[in-house]
Amino acid sequence: MGLFSRIKATVEADFHELLDKKEQKNPIAMLNQYLRQCEQETEKVRKLIERQSLLQAEFTREYKEAQDLAEKRKRQAEIAKQAGEAELMEFAMQESLQYEQRALHLQGALQQATQQLTELERKYEEMKHKLKDMHIKRMELMGRENIARANHRINQVLSANDRYTQPIAKFEEMELYLERIEQQVNTDYHRHTIDARIAQLEKENKQ
Which of 71, 104, 153, 172 has its CA 20 to 30 A from that of 30? Predict the structure, then answer.
């Protein structure tokens, strides 16, 4: 392997490794890129079919024209023969034979162009079906990815140690803390109220 071939192989290996990493990171994005490439290839085939269809129409026109001219020269040769114009008859016959040969050649080319067009159309329809199937498969994968992400988020929220539950846990701790303070305040209030009341009663009894 030459130096250029080794460099090319190394670059291609690095490129494919980069694509593999990108695919692992975001498979749907890579799938979208691949589908765009398939759509571009399908569009190229569609344009080739259009060109082939135009070519087939051109072959058909040329073939019909050659047939018509061959028949025309035959009639002219017959007219020249009846008129005793041997030279003119010979010229018309030669022209007729040339047009017949051309028509025969064009007939073969037309048949080949028609077969090629039929094969292209068959492959094009097959490509469109496969492309449609890939679009459906992409929607299925996107749905599964959305479900997986949603379940992941739900699991994060429901997890006790997750960062999403920390604010909720903080609120719960604050509510418990406020309840303890409220109980302490009420207890202190009742205690001081009772002490004051008893002190007042003791004072009244002494009097």
Answer: 153
